[in-house]
Structures are given as structure tokens and as C-alpha cells.
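Q: How would the C-alpha cells look for this protein?
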Amino acid sequence: MPLLYNVTLQLRERSGTQFRRQSMDISKTYDPKQAEEHHYPRWEEQGYFAPEINRDPQAPPFSIVIPPPNVTGSLHMGHALQHTMMDVVTRYRRMCGYRTLWLPGMDHAGISTQVMVIRELEKEGLTRHDLGRQKFVERVWKWKAESGGQITRQMRRLGASVDWSREKFTMDEDLSRLVSDVFVRLYDDGLIYRGNRIVNWCPTDQTVLSDLEVQKEPPQDPKQRKLYYLQYPIKGSEAYVTVATTRPETMLGDTAVAVNPNDERYRELVGKTLLLPLTDREIPLIADDYVDQEFGTGAVKITPAHDPNDYEMGVRHDLAQVVVIDQHARMTLSAGADFAGLDRYKAREKVIEKFAELGLLEKVVDYDFSISKCARCQTVIEPLISMQWFCRMEKLRDLALTLIKNQKKPRFVPQVPYEKVYTDWLENLRDWTISRQLWWGHQIPAWYTSEGEVIVAHTEAEARAKAGTDELTQDQDVLDTWFSSALWPFSTMGWPNQTEDLKTFYPTSVLMTARDIIFLWVSRMVMMGMRFVGEEPFADVYVTGTILDKHGQRMSKMKRNGVDPLEVFDKFGVDATRLTLAQVGTTDTRWNEKQVESYRNFANKIWNAARFCLMNSEGAEVDPRTLDPSAEALALHDRWIISRLNKTARDVRAALDDYQFHEAVQTLYHFFWDDFCDWYIELTKTAVTAEEATAERALARSRVLTVLEQALRLLHPFMPYITEELWLSLPGANDSLLHPAYAGAGATIMLTGYPEGLTAKIDEQAEWEMQAVIDLISRVRNIRSEMNIKASERVRILIAASDEKLRDVFSASAEQIARLVRASEVSVNEQLGAPRASARAVLTGGAEVAIPLEGLIDFEQERQRLRRELEKLQAEGSRLEAQLGNPQFVERAPEEKVNELKGRLADIEQRTAALDQMLEALR
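A: Here is the predicted structure in C-alpha cell form.
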């Protein structure tokens, strides 16, 4: 036994004092906070998160740029979910030897940050206008330095292994220069223009919003869920045309009534002139294919200045644009003296009142429809004609469409439905309103001469040179926050300079994000990346699920149903929370605190298993050679755990490579809890806890320590704190175990190699044999429990198996079986030969086990137990027969799945026959 001799010789040459001290140091219970407080600063200080820690010049790159959270933000469940998943894949790739970069940063969050500082000023009795633009912006920077960035501190608590040395902020000087550069390039290429068009206006935030910043929902007030039928007299006639509208106050700005040209009801009226009530204006009745004949009366009022669809129709028919509502949602002088200055909803009441007085209000009916609201402040949007900056999207859109249609890039995970959702949206894209009426943000790099000429330039000095004058005024608007965010993947890498980061890490490997910003952000990054770098910004887009509350509702501040992840960290620990979040995957999931509690229990299980190993580690250390299955005289349970470890590593790698987080978590959970803790530690306990310091004990201890060490590596991407805490306590865990790419780095589990899962070490025969033993022990334990046999009572175990190989397995494991089921005797034969008064069970492979009860049994109780087991098997058998009898299932299901079900059905039939015989024996 050369391996045993060599390991033992080396271990005996070392002092056991070190290992004793380590085993004594580990506390009885796991304290998550203690581990969370002292490991992260060391990781960060040692530079373990930076790609430069990897010394392998041939190392493949792996990179992620973080979806930059708002500088005003604090960690919520959406962040915790995405950051956990990003950290899992980053730590996994780092352990696989990749040169990893997870680049952090924050977004300046234009509107949100400006509102935050305005509220601070209000407490001091000031407004932003009291300060002026320059002083206000200085105040925002001061606020950012003092109060912003709370979320980055919370990210450290979560364990996010981002490279803080590369942290970016969208208002950093270099990123701001880049934003101006991109604006100028797009303007010079004719893709940015300034125009007077209808936009979404927020009367509260006093800025324009893009369509994607607007949410649609039914009015909260039932009084607003109405459809008003208004009569417009036909000039020179007693007749009138009735229009239906949800916004009667806008009729003061009507410039036409439209009908569908195919609507027979109005064919003779097209071209007639209508008298617009409450005004002295006359408007035409026009025909347009856009009109829906089924809505209302089939005739619709047209207000080009206050409805986007009416605006388009007004352009087609050259209609006037009469603005009757201003930026504060109050009526203008153009609405008439009776209405000027009124709030839009007060004006609505007055319009209806006057129509009723004139006998022109035909009816008012209840009507379900959606209104547009500002996604941030929930104010009802007012469509207004406004001079804004726009980005032409047709050419940019075509870049992204060609990429997704021809090359399937980026790859969406899951592909269905997100690839189609993304493609459909691109095909129907409209020009993007990129200007915002704010002071905080990237001020638009456009200047105006006294004559109104527009000068677009990188800097004011360049603008003066272009204009030939110093008399310039810069545009007061700032760019939409999403404009700078669209440049994030390459702006953070140093573009337009060909930096090493850009060469190495762009395109990035994967973007992990929520589905609600596929349009706002993902699509725009693809378009900008293709336009300026010539490559897609990321290979994959992983769309996470959403954490819902316990009732299945989305969490929101308004509903006050959110769960603070920091409170969950405090209650259950970061690792347990991360494991809960990681298994969410791409599906929406209701938050369940019991799940976090179960993973806290799992963390305790890990701790207790490690504590057992450390308390029995004298004379032993982690040694990968102990997991060589080719070594002589390996016991069945040792061959089995080596196989299970490698199969687990193989399956977890495959799951993580395909972003199957739930499968990875479940595989790891069952390996550690079931295979390692419940079975392997129990099976090897006698050798590990032997009092005499023998070579066999040293080898058994080293092997269980090594399996534990490998298991901790597998768990590390998901549970970084507890795995580091325990790994550093293991005898023999030092820098010699690091991945070769990290030679010279300090000892840490995060730089060890991720277990590979070698096919050569997977032993299906050992797994089959061990499963037979596990099945036997489990069924005997069940019988003892069901029959209420005292724990102190030793029982005789009679085993029968017609298969000689199976008998050999049971015979070879008889000592282990006897110890784990507290048996006085284990007898293995071809025939059972059990007394009538015996409790019996059928095992996998057709074997049987019996426990003679010698008068302790209640025969009727035993018959009932057997009948219950028989009914359960028969129900499962019927279900499988129906499944296999379905031709569609058999044709579509994978062949291995069909064979698996057939094998299970055959086993059920065999066990059912044996149960029938048992029942017959007890009659």
C-alpha cells in the first residue's frame, strides 16, 4: 500500500499541535457576521478581485460590467439578486483560471438625484433657482461625496468580487468627455437633430420623458374612468357630429374631426366644416385610415398639440397645432379666457359643465382604459409640442437587427420569449428623445449664436472657433441618463483609446439584467457598441427572474411590500441569502423566508461537518492524492464518495456554464447534505474517530478532509464567507492548493482551482453498489421507526437477493450495515427464510430484507403498512403506464428519459409482486 505508507510517513513527520490548535479554535456554532466582517477587506486589499492577480499570459478573459445602480440607491432585492448571480459566475470563472474582470460603477441618475438634492434644499428653505445652476451642480457633487454610493458599501457586504480599482461613475471626467464625443459624432453623421415635436412631458419633474420612461395603467380615481360623448355642430346645418373622448379638456385645442374613409356613416360629411363649441373656431371633418370605426361613434376629435397619434395625423393633413395646456398642466390663453390658468382636471369639469348647459353633452359612460404616468413620480404625463433633441434610430436599429437576425447575437437566456420581444421592439422603433430639462447630468454640447445658429462641438473653445465668435450660449438641457448608460460597456474600458482593457475584455462575456430594461438599456448598448466599436457589447444576455412578495405582487416602495436584503443578511447571514437568491434563476419567485432559513440550516450543517473533520484532524491534512480511485484497497464508501464528488463537480460546471443556477444549487445541496454529511461521514466515522493513531486512521482523516476541501471549493461561488472561513482552518490548506494561474498569491479558497469532475474518476459500479447499501439501511431504519422499535434494541437483519453480485455487496458491507442500523446480526442469503412474525421491505433490484420481530409485532399494523406501500407503488405504476402509453410523449421525450421510466416501471412491478407475497405471508 504505497500511497497509504507515503501519506502516513509525511504526516507523522509533522507535529500534530498545529492541527489540534485549529480544531480547538473552531466554535460550536457558525457566526456569519464574524466571517462577513474580516474576509472581504483582506480579499480587496490583496487585489484578489483584479484581473492582474492572474499571472497566466494565456488565460482566457471573462468580463462583466455591472448594470450601474443609481448613486441615490440602496440595495434592494433586485440588486441583491443580480449581484449574487454576477458574483457566482465571476468567482466560478476566476477559479477556473480565467482572467476575470467584474467592473463596478454607478449611474448619476439625472432626475432621481436632482430631486433628492432639491428635497435637501427645501429643508433649508431654498430652491435650486436660489442657488443657480453652477452652485446647484456643485451641491449635487457635494451630496454625492457625502451621501451617495451607499450601495457600494452594501455590495461589499454581499461579497461582490468586483475590481474596485476600476470603479466608474457616469459623470467622471473621462466618461463625460466620451459622451460629448459620441454626441458630436452622431450629430455630424446626421443621426442627432433638434426639432419641434410632441413629447411626453412630466409636469412634476418638469422634463421630457422617453416612451420607455412612461408606464401605462388604469386611472386610480373612478371619476376619471369615463368616456365623454360631445356634439360638434355642422356649419350651416341643424345636424351635428358626436365624438367620444376621455380628455374633454383638450377639445379646446382641436383642429379637426376625423373618420375612417371606409365608414359609410360619414362618407357624405367628409370635407364639411364643424363649429368647435366653446370657441369661435371652425374645424374640418377629414378622413384618415388610422381612425378605428369601432371606437365610440367612429368620429374622433383631433388635437395635434396634445396627443401623439393626433400629432402624426396633423402632420399628414397639415393641421394647425393649438397648445391649450402648458408645462405645468394648466390651461393656456389659447384655451380661452374662461379656462386660462385652470388645472387640466378643473378645466375638464368646466368643459363638461358648459357642454351640458349648451345641450351638447350627449352622454357620459364608464370606460376602462390606461393613462400614461411618469414611471418615477407617478404624475400623469402631458403630451406637449416641444423643441427637443432627438436621435434618429433607423440606422442604429438596423445594426442591432442585422446582428440578432443573422448571427443570433447577443444570445438571450432564456431565448424564449426575450429574443422575439427584443427583435419585435427593434422593428417598431421610433426616434429617441434624448434631451432632458434638468441641471444634473451631461449638458448637451451645443451652443447658440446670437442669431440662433446651432454649433455642436466637443468643448466651448471648439464651439467658439467654429462659430468665429465668443458670443455663445450653451444649451441648457442635459442628456437622457440612458444616453451615457448606452455607452457603458466600452466607455468604462477606455474607448476611444485602444486600451489593454478594451482589447482584453470587450466584448464582455455576459450581461445580467432584469427584463424591464431590455429596451431602455440592452438594445441601446447593442446599437452603440456596434456603431462605435464595431462589435456587440456582450456575448450573452441573462434575464433574471423577479422576486415577488408572498402574495405574488411586484415589490415596490409605493406598495410598501419590499423586503430589505440587509435585514435578511442580519437575520440569516449573507451566504444563506445568496444561496436563496441564486436558485431563483430566470423565473419569477415569491419571497419565502422559510427558504432562507433552510439555507441557514444548511450553512450550519456545513459548519458542523467541518467541525467534526477538524476535531478529528490530528495527524492528517488535505492531500489530493487521497482521492485517487486507482489506489489499492479502497473501501466501497471511499470509491463511492470520490465518484459522487467528481460527478457533482461535472454537473455543477455544466449547470454554471449554461447559467442554470437552480440546478447548480440543488446539486451542491444534495451532495453536501446527503452524500457527504448523511452518508460518507457516517460510513467513515469509525476509521476517523479511532483512538489509536494508525496509518489507516491518518489516511481516513486526510481523505475526509480532502473531500471537505473539494466540497468547499464547489460551494465557494455561492457561499464565499463560510467557505473561506472553513478553508483557512483546514490543515494543509495553503497556497500550494491555488490554481497555477495564481502562483505567488496568498492562501485563499477563491483562487483555488474549481473541481473539474473527471470522467475517469466516476465509478458507476461503486455508485450502484453503494446505492443498494443506502437503500437497505434506509428501509431498515424506516421499519424501526414505523414499528416503534427502541433505539437501544438490537435487531437481526435477514437479507435475500437472487443476484449473486448484490449478495456480495451486502456481505462486504455487513459490518457497516450492522453499525448503522444497530443490528446484532446481518445474514445474507439467496432465499429469505424469515419467520412469519417479521417486518419486511423490498429493495432495489428485487432484494428483500426482513427483521424478525419475535412477538413484538402487531400483525394488523404490519399488514396496513404493507398495503400503504403497495397502494403507493400501484399509483406510481399507473401514472408511469399512462405516460408511457401516450404516443406523443414517447415520440417527443428523450430516449434516455423513456428508458428511465421503463426501468422504474419494471422495478415497481418487481417490488409489487414481492409485497403481495409478504401480505400473503401475514394472513
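The longest strand covers residues 192-202.

The two ends are 55 Å apart (CA to CA).

Upvote if useful.
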